[in-house]
Hints:
This protein is an alpha+beta fold. The protein has 4 helices and 4 strands; from the N terminus they run E-E-H-H-H-E-E-H.
Amino acid sequence: xxxxxxxxxxxxxxxxxxxxxxxxxxxxxxxxxxxxxxxxxxxxxxxxxxxxxxxxxxxxxxxxxxxxxxxxxxxxxxxxxxxxxxxxxxxxxxxxxxxxxxxxxxxxxxxxxxxxxx
Length: 118
């Protein structure tokens, strides 16, 4: 069995993580569930933590990535905006491109680990 490295990219705005893999996963969960609370439950995350991540995303970008939907008999919800869909798609493309470019170097590094098989 060979050991493999992977990359985790984070987009920093000043000292704050504006977007990263966890926020991308949260946006995808909001897309699937239609709410922040349901997305948080699906990710085994507290509602407060999910709400704080959404707040950071919305403050970091010019347009909000998530908007609350008006409540009614079924209660409120959340929508991933067009800007959110764009950012999510761009981030996933950056992740794939970075991993593809770095994979040969990551494989070389993995060979230097204890227990690595040649």
